[in-house]
Design a protein that fits this description.
Helices cover 29% and strands 29% of the residues. By secondary structure, the chain is of the alpha/beta class. The chain has 2 domains: 77 residues, Rhodanese-like domain (Oxidized Rhodanese, domain 1, 3-Layer(aba) Sandwich); 108 residues, 2-Layer Sandwich (Alpha-Beta Plaits). The strands form 3 sheets. Strands 3-1-4-5 form a 4-stranded parallel sheet, covered by helices on one side. Strand 4, helix 3 and strand 5 form a beta-alpha-beta unit. Helix 4 packs antiparallel against helix 7.
Length: 194
């Protein structure tokens, strides 16, 4: 029996995948070598590129694997669920970053287990990317002040997310963050494309 592995991102997997497939994103394979050793591994993704890379990666480590050709993926039973992402943009007053990060972690822990919640990520903006922004200059670290954060939360629907914001414990948690902020926060919804 083959072990079918989807090597796309967790978000892509959640939105639609081969029923019964495991999700091991391509760049996480190194952490699963011992688990995959001795199994008949069958990889797939949306274009075939990540699958080919996964087959090569395991092959270099002495593990035989193959891939499902992209034109055959539709022959497998699929499972799909909706997922949206809420993006929060936050700017924190200088000197309050550590305290803010602790309070944000507490709020994220509170969110786990709430109906419709699928996960979260918090990013701290560390410096400017000259190459990515097209700016002229040298590649030196430039401190971004005030410190900016992007909080991503994943949900089954906008309705679940909006209901979450009405929970008293969440309202209290968000209001508790306001004293750390230098600019009014805002939130947008993002459709996960990949």
């Amino acid at each position: 029996m083959n072990l079918i592995v989807d090597v796309r991102s967790r978000e892509e997997y959640y939105k639609c995948h081969v029923k019964g497939a495991l999700n091991i994103p391509l760049f996480d394979l190194e952490f699963y070598i011992d688990f995959l050793r001795g199994k008949d591994v069958l990889f797939y993704c949306d274009s075939g590129r990540r699958s080919r890379m996964a087959v090569e990666y395991l092959g270099e480590r002495g593990i035989k694997a193959s891939m499902i050709p992209t034109e055959e993926i539709d022959k497998y039973e699929q499972e799909a669920k909706p997922m949206i992402c809420a993006l929060n943009y936050l700017s924190v007053k200088p000197g309050l970053e550590m305290e803010f990060e602790e309070k944000t972690k507490e709020l994220c822990r509170t969110t786990v287990g709430m109906k419709g919640f699928l996960g979260s990520k918090i990013l701290r903006v560390s410096t400017i990317s000259y190459g990515g922004s097209g700016l002229q200059g040298t590649y030196e670290d430039i401190d971004v002040k005030p410190t900016k954060y992007v909080m991503l939360t994943y949900w089954t629907s906008k309705k679940a997310h909006e209901k979450f914001h009405k929970e008293q414990v969440i309202l209290k948690g968000f209001m508790g963050l306001m004293k750390y902020l230098s600019i009014m926060p805002y939130e947008e919804y993002g459709e996960i494309m990949r």
